[in-house]
Write a structure and sequence with these properties.
Chains A, B: InterPro entries: ArgE/DapE, Bact_exopeptidase_dim_dom, Peptidase_M20, Peptidase_M20_dimer, Peptidase_M20A. Two copies of one chain form a homodimer. Chain A is an alpha+beta fold. Chain A folds into two domains: 287 residues, 3-Layer(aba) Sandwich (Aminopeptidase); 128 residues, Alpha-Beta Plaits (2-Layer Sandwich), CATH 3.30.70.360. Helix content of chain A is 36%, strand content 21%. Chain A is built from 13 helices and 18 strands. In chain A, the strands form four sheets. In chain A, strands 1, 2, 3, 6, 7, 8, 15, 16 and 17 form a nine-stranded mixed beta sheet that branches. In chain A, strands 11-13-9-14 form a four-stranded antiparallel beta sheet, covered by helices on one side. In chain A, strands 4-5-18 form a three-stranded antiparallel beta sheet. The two termini of chain A are 14 Å apart. At the A-B interface, strand 9, strand 10, helix 7, strand 11 and strand 12 of A face strand 9, strand 10, helix 7, strand 11 and strand 12 of B. Strand 11 of chain A pairs antiparallel with strand 11 of chain B, so a sheet runs across the interface.
């Protein structure tokens, strides 16, 4: 296999510029939710060029929508397809899913961006733009590895199933649709931005919406009303306390370097529509992290119970309890045994390329790995070139050198996992 | 004058149903900002019926917009006029402005309303709906008093200048336009909802917008970012402290029954657009009360200084100071001497009708009285039938009996102030 590895590496070394250009084009098509079509068109073109067996479909059928793990507030998927491209093996080898999501989160406050969020401009080895790190850079690493194997005419025994899915950022409906369409494999790699760390376990998460009541009044006699923002702040404080309690229970050593293994993020607050009025309703939305060994339903119950306890601190909540909705995003946690051969194969490839052992941790965020493993029963590991810290942030970027390194490690893992088929 | 008073009262007693119907029609035309036209059309029709000298004009000329007291973010006043109707006197009497605003605040959370906010339905002597108390009920009391005087063919010496203005709720541009158009008088009554109390002094107020910065990050690694909502809560706490400090300085006995003489109301908060992201900006809007003896500019400076002090409590604000804008609403405080003859005339009328002395206080909110007195140099008193506690609230209502009582007191005040002209 040494010979194949050398050929593949040489090919990738010579084609860095093309891979960079592909990433640039993908970033420039800012594929926020509902606008994934143009970026997927670039992926489809690339898959055709590689001669993969293409499967392009609009998700959203009844089987998907009625599935217990389906969780989305999106009504229409028309024109924004899922894409799968299969590189068929000769048989008798282990198959591998390579999964990347094409959707990106919104660019947020434009003023914080030094350049157009969708410019894809390059400076000092970094390619900037929303989606560069999360996770179009990872997807390009997958395609670069596959292209190198195809271009150097290596035959694999096992199938490689490349997936470019929508809806990861909103709860994984795209990957769930791929599982329900029948895609299975002996293992899967998702190159989310891990800073080249390996995450066999992933934090799951869910979105929640808390509605807090107040009583309106004229601002000049604000003492006649009850400010919903003031009560909303008590809800936020309560959620902060719940976060402390939940994290104090985490003992898994994979989390030892993570400051808050399962955070509760307050992502949105919205209250009031007139500066001179006391607002009578406050809506708080956020995300609660789920530990790899937790059940989604148990986490929901714990948060709801915690907010019910508010009535002990403030009598207002006895008469006007908060209401909790679980809406939109929902990512099942992932939990791969650290002795699993998929993990050890990836670790060996890493060691070989980098000359040192990888950092193995639990991921601080949910991924589509939860759906692949818990619903598809596929062993999953998360490993990618993106910069964890800048995902979802202004001035998001990826270090191009890390992209090429990860492609190298992934190519090596493909060759080891799927095995090279020799005609002689 | 006893004779005239008796005739006027008798007439009003017999025409209660018509006045009630007029209020109902005015409430049903929900004249929120930018939609004042239909309610003003009803006012115009009534003024024509009374034979008043009508002046109907769209405000917004350069003189208004360039005036230092002008403060509005509204760009277009087309189709939503100010209305003035003058009842000319025979001369040699004191003139009186009767001022009511036609604009109402938004209905807010519809779920809190037992009925349609613009139904005007009546139950147990209360007429319900947005604007019933603040302050279409007061305006109807003015028109009822004027109609009674006109219908009983009483001639006054002084002019009565009835004004139905727009934009009170957003800072008084309508009344400022009337002052700049030349309307002056020896006194003015504004029947804002005072629970039949008399307010010679009025709290002024201003709107502010504070922009608070954070640093965005993925919610799963929220510790990599800085949550703008968390920093926004510190800003709210600081404003609460400022409110305490400012109110501890109020010693005017007129404020002795008011829990918070000059409140700071947090009316709006808006932050974040994705539950899984740490929000990087938080916008807080509110209203700060201004004491009758305070200068608007000094209050602005005090709030800004207070927020600058946040950097001593949290180093974040040193690098990312908040920014403060003074936008939209702005009501100059009013301050009438408690020995002024306008006030004593109103007090005598009250005593005569009610058989007891009125409660004289300082108002807990700004009114157009500030503009009339500080810009127009017109002595102003605030006195009206509405229910202070339900202004701007869901299920706003007015007690119809109070409306008729106030019309009685106002009619009596008109006769005393403007004086009856006798041909014999």
């Amino acid at each position: 296999m040494e010979e194949e590895l050398r050929k593949v590496r040489k090919w990738m070394q010579r084609n860095r510029v093309h891979a960079t250009r592909l990433l640039q084009k993908l970033v420039q098509e800012g594929s926020v939710r509902g606008k994934e079509a143009a970026a997927q068109a670039i992926i489809i073109e690339k898959c055709r060029e590689l001669g993969l067996q293409l499967d392009i479909w609009e998700i959203g059928n009844k089987t998907l929508m009625n599935h217990p793990a389906y969780c989305s507030d999106r009504k229409d998927y028309t024109g924004n397809p899922n894409v799968v491209g299969v590189l068929k093996g000769t048989g008798d080898g282990k198959s591998l899913i390579l999964n990347g999501h094409i959707d990106v989160v919104p660019e947020n406050n434009l003023a914080e961006w030094k350049n157009d969020p969708f410019s894809g401009f390059i400076e000092e080895g970094r390619l900037y733009g929303r989606g560069s790190t999360d996770m179009k850079g990872g997807t390009v690493a997958l395609l670069l590895a596959m292209e190198a194997i195809i271009a150097t005419e290596i035959q694999l025994k096992g199938d490689v199933i490349f997936q470019s899915v929508i809806e990861e950022e909103s709860g994984g409906a795209g990957t769930l649709a791929a599982v329900l369409r029948g895609y299975r494999a002996d293992g899967a790699i998702i190159p989310e931005p891990t800073n080249l760390k390996i995450f066999p376990k992933q934090q799951g998460s869910m979105w929640f919406r808390v509605t807090v009541k107040g009583r309106s009044a004229h601002g000049g006699t604000r003492y006649e009303g009850v400010n919903a923002i003031e009560k909303g702040i008590l809800v936020i404080n309560q959620l902060n306390e719940l976060e402390k309690v939940r994290n104090s229970r985490i003992v898994d050593p994979l989390y030892k370097n993570i400051p808050i293994p399962i955070p509760i993020n307050i992502g949105k607050i919205h209250s009031g529509d007139w500066p001179s009025s006391v607002p009578d309703i406050c809506i708080i939305e956020g995300r609660i992290g789920v530990a790899p060994d937790e059940k989604m339903s148990a986490v929901q119950a714990e948060l709801e119970r915690s907010l019910q306890e508010l009535e002990k601190k403030d009598i207002w909540f006895k008469d006007y309890p908060t209401t909790v909705e679980w809406f939109g995003g929902r990512w099942i946690p992932g939990d791969l045994d650290i002795e699993h051969p998929l993990l050890t194969t990836l670790e060996s490839s890493y060691l070989e390329v980098m000359g040192s052992s990888p950092v193995v941790e639990a991921s601080p965020w949910g991924t589509d790995g939860g759906v692949l493993s818990k619903i598809g029963d596929i062993p999953v590991v998360i490993f990618g070139p993106g910069v964890t810290e800048v995902a979802h942030d202004a001035n998001e970027y990826i270090v191009l050198e890390d992209l090429f390194t990860s492609a190298d490690i992934i190519a090596s893992t493909i060759l080891r996992w799927c095995e090279v088929s020799r005609s002689d």
